Amino acid sequence: MRNRSSHLKISFNSPVILIFTILCFAALLLGEATDGKTTDMFFSVYRSSLGSPLTYVRFAGHVLGHAGWEHFIGNIMLILIVGPLLEEKYGSLNLLFVILAVALVTGVINFAFFPRIQLLGASGVVFALILLSSFTSIKEGEIPLTFILVAAVYLGGQVYEGLFVPNNVANLTHILGGFTGAVLGYVMNKNKMSRY
Asked: How far apart are CA 24 and CA 153, in angstroms?
């Protein structure tokens, strides 16, 4: 009888989520190394000239930037927990589309309506993934109770914090991210069911 030793391999199981995490990490390191200059230049969105090409980079790039290690770890931990399951269910291209859609929606709205606020971080993506995950067990003609509960608790919490808790969190970004994730989750599930 031959003794087989089992070899464990590390798999690159979720390319979009892993590359997104690596890009966020690199953006944070660059920001630390340049005393925030690269964060201001590429990885946060704020009112700037539409004639500058960097304005358009920041519309999407702001989701890669973070204000510090605590901000980064809080967002990335949730993305690494929820993201791979969603990438497996919806596919890498669809998940990339969700991330880019959230980045552009939150970036353009912040640029247009909040000229004095500099927005950065992946929290909009986090909340999009949280609400998107509620759609994983949707069936035709049914709305999962888990989705209703997550949406109610989440939206209620964000509205409450936005109105009554003075803090540095962009609650509107969370709401927009969650809304984008919910809409895209509904559309992707509907398209998937119509194929069967």
From this structure: 28
